[in-house]
Specification:
The chain has about 270 residues and is an alpha+beta fold. The chain folds into two domains: about 150 residues, no CATH class; about 100 residues, LytTr DNA-binding domain (OB fold (Dihydrolipoamide Acetyltransferase, E2P), Beta Barrel), CATH 2.40.50. A hairpin with a 2-residue loop joins β2 and β3. It starts with a strand and ends in a 5-residue tail after the last helix.
Length: about 270
């Protein structure tokens, strides 16, 4: 089965970044909202039309794609400075909140124009959504991406005690100290191993097995007999339909994931 997966890296518990949890949550909320509309109509002796109720509550469906996009944006930006995190979260929340309301209003007006008489005006519906649901979207898009990042960080296994977080490499006759997490991938280039960061490459006399032993297994994975990949640098995986996958990294490099090493990277698909 062909799979095209955006990677929620290192999340090994049910997490906000996984599509099925969004779908289940949204389906549950829509069911409760429709039930509430029905109970309101019974207690107030008003009409209840399930088609109109379902259309109005399509509002919740937009949380699925937009939250995934918001999570990815915050994850990619993810400033290191604490003072920069709050403006980022506020900006993301405002942008996705207005995008959510605009998309919902557009869908609602389009369907009502085609199906219902009289139809709803765009500005009137947008103002209704803005006054009734803006605070929901704002809180959601401000909080959930931060929770997703916190969960991902909690599930990262720290480097074993006493293991250095840097690696020393030779370049142009000099010894360079390199943070291990800056490594994007390592490939064999016999008789050497070539270590790539975002903007540099280094030749090293150690083989992949030796280098693998020095790296954090919660971040780095042996994905092929000739390559090790920093899983946090992966942006997508595309199936080759034979058990192998092609991984695209942040720098655009494509690395083949071998089915023979699937035990090392299978968790990235879930």
């Amino acid at each position: 089965m062909e799979q095209h997966a955006s990677i929620e890296k290192q999340l090994r518990v049910p997490n906000f970044g996984h599509t099925r949890w969004y779908v289940l949550l949204v389906a549950f909320v829509i069911a409760l909202a429709v039930l509430q509309d029905y109970l309101f109509s019974r207690t107030r002796h008003t009409g209840f039309y399930i088609s109109e109720s379902l259309l109005y509550h399509t509002f919740w469906i937009f949380f699925i794609p937009l939250t995934m996009l918001a999570n990815k944006l915050v994850r990619l930006a993810n400033p290191k400075k604490i003072w920069a995190k709050a403006p980022l979260n506020i900006g993301v929340a405002l942008f996705f909140s207005f995008s959510h309301l605009l998309l919902f209003t557009s869908l609602f007006v389009l369907v009502s124009t085609l199906v219902f008489t009289p139809s709803h005006r765009f500005i009137g519906m947008f103002n209704t959504a803005l006054s009734n649901q803006f605070y929901i979207t704002l809180l959601w898009y401000a909080i959930v991406p931060s929770i997703a990042i916190a969960l991902r960080n909690l599930n990262r296994t720290p480097s074993p005690t006493g293991v250095s977080e840097v690696i020393r490499l030779k370049k142009a006759g000099k010894i360079v100290t390199l943070p291990k997490e800056s490594i994007q991938y390592i490939i064999t280039d016999k008789p050497y191993s070539t270590i790539y960061t975002k903007d540099q490459k280094f030749l090293d006399n150690r083989n992949l097995k030796q280098l693998e032993a020095e790296l954090n297994p919660s971040i780095f994975a042996r994905v092929h007999r000739s390559s090790i990949v920093n899983t946090t640098a992966i942006t997508e995986l595309i199936s080759r339909n034979n058990g192998d996958f092609d991984a695209t990294l942040q720098d655009g490099k494509i690395i083949r994931f071998s089915r023979h090493y699937r035990a090392n990277w299978d968790h990235l698909l879930h």
